Write a sequence for this structure.
């Protein structure tokens, strides 16, 4: 039994370890706790959280780097869709599914360009990282379907009632039904089923209704770092000032002060009093010389430079920012001074988080956009998809496919290619998986690859060159082609 007298009260505890993490019972009583329901914890501070995070993005380089690097690797210039309808569920042939998919993904590409959706993907993703969440409005008018992106700060986070929490409309189970901006907007039109608005955020905890900014965990840290930088700059200013004192044989200190004060007044026109009754200072200006009198000498103060720990402090700040923002120090600074293995390991950690966030974005945003475009194409008679509106399973089968986004650059190209080659040969990954690592899609290029292989394998260099020339010639009137050279039997 341990007895502790604290704050005028006796507290007792056993010898066993504390489940709450206390070494001594009661030593964590002053620890401010955050509720396990993320929505309740943010109800009184979400507006300030968004504004501070946005301010840090524009003024704090490590956070801006973490946000921009994450967006560049996850979304880049926009994720493209490669359609692969599930012919087994749809009851069609693989060739028919392939042809339908090629046409659909081409139409999607043109729609993406018309609506500038490739760029808007990055805007929505980056906005969610900065302020917590972002909105996408689906506008339908005489001109057709359009997509309008908006920041998450447009949601009235102060809207609280039985069905609203932090501006999000939900049911008794906290399932999201809509948002409250200047009015309540349902996610889906109850009459037509069309999408009205979409809220994107990276969900981290159960029952979470609003997104947490990427800077959420480093707000206090970054502000303290800012103060430390300010103090360092002030110290640097002091180091640029020459400070010293004069030595003289005159023993009458008061007379010295009066003489120097008189000289200073004459120089300043009697408008400035530069000396006090005890100590004085003089600004001699850049390039001027102070003339020493007989018997006088000058002793300069030796100001020490800032501690060498400043560099280590900055290094640890970057590491803490990296850990809190799902990145790595090398990625934030774009600096990889260590070995290949260390570089590869650091980037691998970052790439896992990128894949996770890209998948969430594609599932929650891109697939919704593609579904709305597909509905319009079907209703307009551009494409045919039997059962699309009647059976949810068939709808998912028609819209099955993969998203291709930016791929990481190579650190050691030959070594990585050889590793992928061995993995394919040993059946650890498929050829399609290996091709996707380079931004290619195996199923859409295998036919062209096979045709090219048939043309070149087993032929000599002359025939190969003639084949290339034929394919490069413009389609038009027949042109005279050079005859193949006869083989020299003497070779």
């Amino acid at each position: 039994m341990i007895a502790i007298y604290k704050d005028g009260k006796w507290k007792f505890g056993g010898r066993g370890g504390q489940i709450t993490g206390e070494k001594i019972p009661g030593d964590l009583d002053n620890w401010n706790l955050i509720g396990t329901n993320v929505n309740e914890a943010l109800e009184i501070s979400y507006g300030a959280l968004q504004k501070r995070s946005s301010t840090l993005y524009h003024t704090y380089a490590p956070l801006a780097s973490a946000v921009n690097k994450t967006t560049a690797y996850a979304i880049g210039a926009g994720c493209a869709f490669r359609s692969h309808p599930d012919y087994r569920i749809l009851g069609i042939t693989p060739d028919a599914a392939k042809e339908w998919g090629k046409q659909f993904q081409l139409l999607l590409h043109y729609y993406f360009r018309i609506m500038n959706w490739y760029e808007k993907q990055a805007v929505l993703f980056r906005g969610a990282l900065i302020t917590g969440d972002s909105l996408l409005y689906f506008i339908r008018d005489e001109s057709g379907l359009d997509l309008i992106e908006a920041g998450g700060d447009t949601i009235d986070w102060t809207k609280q009632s039985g069905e609203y929490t932090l501006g999000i409309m939900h049911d008794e189970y906290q399932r999201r039904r809509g948002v409250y901006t200047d009015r309540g907007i349902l996610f889906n039109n109850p009459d037509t089923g069309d999408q009205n608005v979409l809220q994107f955020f990276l969900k981290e905890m159960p029952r979470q209704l609003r997104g947490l900014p990427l800077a959420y965990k480093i707000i206090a840290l970054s502000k303290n770092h800012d103060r430390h930088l300010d103090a360092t700059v002030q110290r640097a200013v002091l180091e640029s000032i020459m400070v010293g004192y004069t030595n003289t044989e005159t023993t009458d200190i008061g007379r010295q002060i009066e003489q120097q004060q008189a000289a200073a007044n004459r120089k300043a026109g009697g408008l400035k009093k530069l000396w006090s009754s005890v100590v004085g200072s003089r600004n001699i200006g850049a390039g001027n010389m102070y003339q020493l009198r007989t018997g006088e000498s000058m002793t300069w103060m030796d100001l020490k430079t800032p501690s060498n720990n400043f560099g280590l402090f900055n290094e640890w700040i970057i590491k803490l920012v990296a850990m809190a923002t799902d990145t790595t120090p090398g990625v934030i600074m774009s600096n990889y001074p260590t070995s290949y293995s260390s570089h590869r390991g650091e980037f691998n950690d970052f790439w896992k988080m990128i894949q996770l966030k890209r998948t969430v974005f594609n599932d929650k945003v891109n697939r919704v956009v593609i579904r709305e475009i597909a509905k319009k194409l079907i209703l307009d008679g551009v494409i045919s998809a039997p059962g699309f509106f009647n059976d949810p399973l068939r709808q998912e089968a028609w819209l099955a496919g993969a998203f291709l986004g930016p791929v990481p650059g190579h650190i050691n190209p030959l070594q990585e290619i050889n590793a992928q080659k061995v993995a394919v040969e040993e059946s650890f990954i498929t050829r399609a998986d290996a091709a996707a690592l380079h931004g290619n899609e195996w199923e859409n290029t295998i036919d062209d690859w096979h045709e090219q292989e048939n043309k070149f394998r087993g032929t000599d260099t002359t025939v190969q060159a003639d084949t290339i020339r034929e394919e490069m010639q413009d389609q038009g009137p027949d042109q005279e082609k050079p005859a193949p050279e006869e083989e020299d039997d003497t070779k």
